[in-house]
Design brief:
Low-confidence stretches: 1-32
Helix content: 55-70%
Shape: globular
Structural class: mainly alpha
Distance between the termini: 36 Å
Largest sheet: 2 strands, antiparallel
Radius of gyration: 16 Å
Number of strands: 2
CATH topology: N-utilizing Substance Protein B Homolog, Chain A
Strand order of the largest sheet: 1-2
């Protein structure tokens, strides 16, 4: 089982990494000008988990294939490893967390949304250096980019339902500070 434990150095890097260079557009909003290594790792892990769910490929074979893809060298390979191998190894646990929040059977969920929810649940549990709101936003954005038309809304609902269970102190702190609506 892979469980990533981060040092203070990695935590500092995470804050910087997940707030990659920002660019202001003409309407005053900011957009990330450069994807962080972690964001790229999430994209590659999503592709790998899709291969696992759809193609029933072995994790090691997926890993070899993915590391050969264009742009992989720009990703955070440690985070990628944790997500790919961690989600595959803990898939039954992750499914048991997700299933109570679904309005349909798990096998009716698209493999993209299924993978995104696995990864979000995994990060909530094992990547405590990444704020829960960052985890939520990263996976909503992945679902928007790679999932079905409204898949991101479904992912948002499920991960928002998991956050209070898996990150209770963080969510409650935000609620107490007025950062959350009830």
């Amino acid at each position: 089982m892979i469980d990533i434990q981060h040092t203070a150095t990695t935590s500092t890097q995470t804050a910087t990494d997940d707030k990659a260079a920002r660019k202001t557009s003409s309407n005053g909003t900011t957009k990330s000008a450069v994807k962080s290594g972690r964001s790229r790792a999430r994209e590659f892990a999503l592709q790998g988990l899709y291969q696992f769910l759809v193609g029933n490929n072995e994790a090691a074979d997926i890993d070899v294939f993915t590391r050969d893809l264009s742009g992989f060298h720009k990703s955070d390979s440690v985070h990628y490893d944790a997500l790919l191998y961690g989600c595959i190894e803990q898939r039954e646990i992750l499914d048991s967390l997700i299933e109570p929040l679904l309005d349909r059977k798990l096998d009716e969920i698209s493999p993209i949304e299924h993978s995104v929810m696995w990864m979000g649940a995994y990060e909530f549990q094992h990547c405590i250096d990444v704020p829960w709101r960052v985890v939520l936003n990263e996976y909503i954005e992945l679902a928007k980019s790679f999932g079905g038309t409204d898949g991101h809304k479904y992912v948002n609902g499920v991960l928002n339902g998991l956050a209070p269970k898996l990150r209770a102190l963080e969510v409650e702190s935000d609620r107490a500070k007025g950062k959350l609506r009830d």
